[in-house]
Amino acid sequence: MSESDGNEFPVWRTPGGEPVCCVEKIKVLNENLAELKGLAQEALEDAVLMGCDERQVREVLAGIVAGIINPYRK
């Protein structure tokens, strides 16, 4: 998460670089990010407890993020 450290959220920006100002939009973005982080943490913990290689799990999770498609791209 760029522009953040620990549990802090980034400053969400528009494609033009301006900060997103709508409080409700920021709330939704932060909730989504927190949910994703929690699910990824659970997946990593489960995999490690089941004997999987942590590095591989992290690579798979990164691959999932890298493969997400933006359906609104023009």
Can you offer a commentary on this structure?
This protein is mostly helical and 74 residues long. The chain contains 2 helices and no strands. The longest helix is centred in the middle third of the chain and has 27 residues, at 23-49. The mean pLDDT is 92.
What is the secondary structure topology, with strand pairs?
Elements: H1 23-49, H2 54-66
Helix pairs in contact: 1-2
Question: Number of DSSP helices?
Answer: 2
- Low-confidence parts lasting 5 or more residues at pLDDT below 50? none
Structural class: mainly alpha
Question: Which term fits the overall shape?
Answer: elongated
Helix content: 40-55%
Radius of gyration: 15 Å
Straight-line distance between termini = 25 Å
Main pleated-sheet profile:
none
Order of helices and strands: HH
Mean pLDDT: 92
Identify the quaternary structure here: single chain
Strand content: under 5%
The overall strand count is 0
